[in-house]
Amino acid sequence: MTTRRLPPIMTAAGLIALLGACAGDGYSPFTREAGAIVDRGDFGNATMNNQLVQTGQRSYVVNLNERFAAEVPSTINFAFNSARLDAAAMAVLSRQAAWIRQFPEVRFRVYGHTDLVGSDSYNRRLGLRRAQAAVSYLVAQGISRDRLEAVASFGETQPLVYTQAPERQNRRTVTEVSGFVQRHPNILDGKYAAVVYRGYVNESAGVPSTLTGGSLNGGSDAGE
After folding, report:
1. What are phi and psi of 223, to 5 degrees?
2. Looking at the domain covering 59-204, what would its CATH class be?
3. Model pTM?
């Protein structure tokens, strides 16, 4: 019996098909640059983020607020119908103060919230008292009052848990980055990394904030 051999053209076609199948699994050394297989899609993201910040396309405020929320608890909770800070709340605010001291250029707002028990007008006043209590504690920890704002409360309008019953998770304040202090000598001009580095060095060495109360003529915001 004679063995039939495939024509050379068929053999080449088969090789091409085989290479195509290899390329289909996401890797082909013939069509991709050297080292491409090690990139899972996030290579260069840090550089891209820095470029967006430097050019103003990504807000400094958003960037710092995301970091603040990731590194320290931004929320404290309260007992029913109370604006008194308990031990757990003071511990969280102390951690917030330590973080805030790293960035003397940055301002913060504290938003007060309540649960759904009671009238809207009463809850707005209660929520504002809670925000003011948190701000007062941060000031006692050495943060300039010019950098902190207790805003008009959201009252009962933004519950985390929607229930008409008393709910501790809804009785809270939330601290957020709001902007930068205008006319401060260290105001950011594309030197975000330098500010972060300086903050860590000063904090570890116990160097106090360079910002003192009343030094900013009211301390108005820039970049909100």
Report:
1. 85, 25
2. alpha beta
3. 0.59
